[in-house]
Every structure is written in C-alpha cells, then in structure tokens.
Amino acid sequence: MEVRLDQATPTSAIEDLYRTEGPRLWRSVMAFTGDREVTDDAVSEAFAQLIGRGASVRDPARWVWRASFKIAAGELHRRRPMPQGPQGDVATMPEPLDHVIRALAVLPPKQRAVVVLHDYADRPTEEIAHVLDIRPSTVRVHLSEARRRLRSMLEDRDG
C-alpha cells in the first residue's frame, strides 16, 4: 500500500494510514517483540515521527513499518535479555496464537523479524531487506532457517 502525503493535509493521510495499517503493524511488532509495552511504544513513536516528518516521507506506509521495527529492536536491545514469550494477556490477541509467539521469541532477532514481516505481515523480500538493512539473499537465508526452527519447535510441542 503506497500512500502519498499531501502538503496541505498530511495528518489526515496519516490517520488513514493508521486505520488501514495500524492493527496489522501492531500485531506484527507484537509477534516480533513479545512485549506489549515495547510494541505500543514503538508503533506510537513511529507514527509520531511520521507526523513530524510530514510530506518529506515519500512512502509513509513503508517508512512507518521500518521505523516501528527499528524502534522496537532498539528497545529490546536496550532491555536485554529478550523476553521468552509475550507479556500480558495473549488471549486478547486475535492472532497469532500464544504458542507461536513463544516459539518466535526463541528465534534470534533478525530471524524473528524476517519471518514475521514475510509470513505474517506479507511483506516482499526486497522490502524486508530495506526495513532490516540487510541483503535480500540474507532475508531468504534467515527466512529458511527461521521456518526450519519454528517447524521443529512447533512439531515438538504438538508431538
């Protein structure tokens, strides 16, 4: 989804973007972080920064996804160690399931981000590479390894 901001009404375009992308973005960042507070802060901060930048952002949707993940990753890095699962009431989250989020929390951060952005947020490889500042080939390697590890963890759980 590409939204262009008009010089005269950037706030209304950002509001539209928040309504269309906000819920899926929040769930994706939550799957990445496993922490409701970090997720709330990262998504809110990304949209606040987008408002401040206004029409200078050429592709607001792409920018806010990248900013949200970078802010969340920075906060997780600052807080180390990584949480071993979601904090808060997972039952209120419509998707993904709590056991999937717990399995995601075990993955290294880059693998977790790649699999969430690709398989959950339905972002193309090139965009994921841009968001995470890595090569598309590295995205594919991380995606393959993350899927293999998740499959193993989730099969062990079901078995």
Write structural notes for this entry.
With 159 residues, the protein is mostly helical. Helix 1 runs parallel beside helix 3. The protein has a single domain, classed as Butyryl-CoA Dehydrogenase, subunit A, domain 3, CATH 1.20.140. The longest helix has 24 residues, at 10-33. The N and C termini lie far apart (40 Å). The protein has helices spanning 10-33, 36-53, 60-79, 98-106, 109-120, 125-132, 136-158.
In brief, what are we looking at here?
This protein is mostly helical. The protein contains 7 helices and no strands. It has helices at 10-33, 36-53, 60-79, 98-106, 109-120, 125-132, 136-158.
- State the helicity in percent bands: over 70%
Which architecture would the CATH scheme give at its second level?
Up-down Bundle
Number of domains: 1
Q: Which consecutive residue ranges, at least 5 long each, have pLDDT under 50? A: 5-9, 82-86, 88-96
What kind of sheet is the major sheet?
none
Q: In sequence order, what are the helices and strands, one letter per element?
A: HHHHHHH
Overall body shape: globular
Cα separation of the termini = 40 Å
Round the Cα radius of gyration to an integer and report it. Answer: 16 Å
In CATH terms, what is the fold-level topology? Butyryl-CoA Dehydrogenase, subunit A, domain 3
Number of helices: 7
CATH superfamily: PhyR, sigma-like (SL) domain
CATH class equals Mainly Alpha
Number of strands: 0
Structural category is: mainly alpha
> Would you tell me the overall average pLDDT?
82
Instruction: Report the portion of residues in β strands.
Output: under 5%
